[in-house]
Design brief:
Layout (H helix, E strand, L loop, with lengths): L1 E2 L2 H9 L6 E4 L2 E7 L7 E9 L2 E5 L6 H13 L7 E5 L5 H4 L2 H8 L2 E4 L1 H12 L1 H14 L4 H15 L9 E2 L13 E5 L8 E5 L4 E5 L20 H13 L5 E4 L5 E2 L1 H25 L6 H7 L11 H20 L3 E4 L6 E4 L3
Parallel strand pairs: 5-6, 6-7, 7-8, 11-12
Antiparallel strand pairs: 1-13, 2-3, 3-4, 4-5, 9-10, 10-11, 14-15
Helix pairs in contact: 5-6, 6-7, 8-9, 9-11, 10-11
The protein binds zinc ion (2 copies).
Length: 349
């Protein structure tokens, strides 16, 4: 893998915002800050057309993020009123958050994959139902009741932030989104979210990869109540799907641009394979079959479990569960015992 966003990487190391850059003729990279978040910023891409500009992702919904987006567009020679459309890679707040305001100020259309539109709609229609589903899932996998309650509350706070904008365009796998002057293809890459998409620009030999493939970190893949029954297995398939494309440079939504998609996909797959092995080893080394919650506490994370925030502990458990489901489907692990909570055992061939 070769870092091609050299200035972006240097900015990352210096802990400052990277510059607005023209990465191809008519294709701009605009960093939009995510306040108080270790990811620091989303890279919004702006595609120049004959009658304005189309964005790929919009950024986090906060005043300083909005200001950075407006200023970035200005550097590229555009006003917010010139935005014709927003292609959103997935429904996470750092990508979708500002879409509503962009539409409000410019009349732009918003495009999203139907699977993520469904998720947004379900949250809006029935937030209480989602909280119930989360509590149900927590109990099922051995999260103590008081912890489960705290985690559900954290979700409630997060739900309050979601800006509900019904996208008017549905992104369809393998088809061209309506971007004048560009020959883009939507590549549906479920995993990180059920409706995650990348955009392939064959003419420029680039892949706008969203959160699907990033140069340094692995995207979170968790078994959320509405994530489908095997998000990690689906993610593996989505990695192979983009690996097969002719791509010279990857334009990700975080961190920095890079070349060597094939190699990066290989590293991601190897990372998860190692994780699957670690999970089997922890189960095998225990005295009795663990719950996913117990198991998560025994795994290696970027920091000790005691220092992981409650909300992130839930994410850690859902990631663990996503791996357990892959092991279960492969016949390498199985649910054991009766009733709740679910416990896991290694299957010895
Ligand atoms: Zn995301
Ligand atoms: Zn993101």
């Amino acid at each position: 893998m070769e870092v091609t966003g050299v200035a972006q990487r240097q900015a990352w190391l210096d802990k400052v915002m990277p510059p607005v850059e023209r990465v191809r003729p008519g294709l701009w990279s605009i960093p939009v800050p995510i306040p108080d978040n270790p990811l620091r910023y989303v890279l919004v891409y702006a595609l120049e057309g004959p009658r304005g500009v189309t964005l790929v992702d919009a950024g986090w919904d906060a005043p300083e993020s909005w200001d950075a987006l407006v200023a970035g567009l200005k550097t590229a020679g555009f006003e917010i009123g010139d935005v014709r459309g927003v292609l959103v890679t997935h429904m996470h707040h750092d990508h979708y958050g500002l879409a509503a305001r962009v539409r409000q100020e410019s009349g732009a259309w918003v495009a999203l994959h139907p699977e993520d539109t469904k998720l947004l709609a379900a949250r809006q229609r029935d937030p209480a139902g989602l909280i119930r589903a989360i509590r149900r899932q927590m109990a099922e996998h051995g999260v103590p009741d008081d912890v489960g309650g705290t985690l559900a509350e954290a979700t409630r706070t997060m739900l309050g932030m979601v800006e509900h904008t019904e996208p008017e365009i549905a992104l369809v796998d393998g088809t061209a989104p309506p971007v004048e002057g560009w020959d883009l293809r939507t590549v549906w890459t479920p995993g990180h979210s059920p409706g995650h998409v990348c955009f392939h620009d064959a003419r420029n030999n680039v892949l706008l990869s969203g959160d699907h493939v990033l140069p340094r970190i692995t995207p979170t893949i968790g078994l959320f109540p509405r994530s489908g029954d095997d998000p990690l297995g689906t993610f593996f398939t989505s990695l192979e799907k983009v690996r097969a494309l002719p791509v010279g440079e990857v334009l990700p939504a975080h961190e920095y641009r890079f070349a060597g998609l094939d190699e990066r996909v290989g590293v991601l797959l190897a990372h998860h394979e190692e994780r699957l092995g670690e999970i089997l080893a922890v189960i095998a080394g225990g005295t009795e079959p663990p719950t996913a919650w117990e198991l998560a506490q025994e795994l290696t994370w970027s920091r000790p479990w005691a220092r992981i925030q409650p909300f992130m502990r839930r994410t850690a458990m859902l990631e663990t569960l996503a791996h357990l489901v892959v092991l279960e489907k492969a016949g390498r692990a199985a649910r054991t015992g009766t009733g709740e909570p679910v416990r896991w055992a290694v299957v010895t061939p």
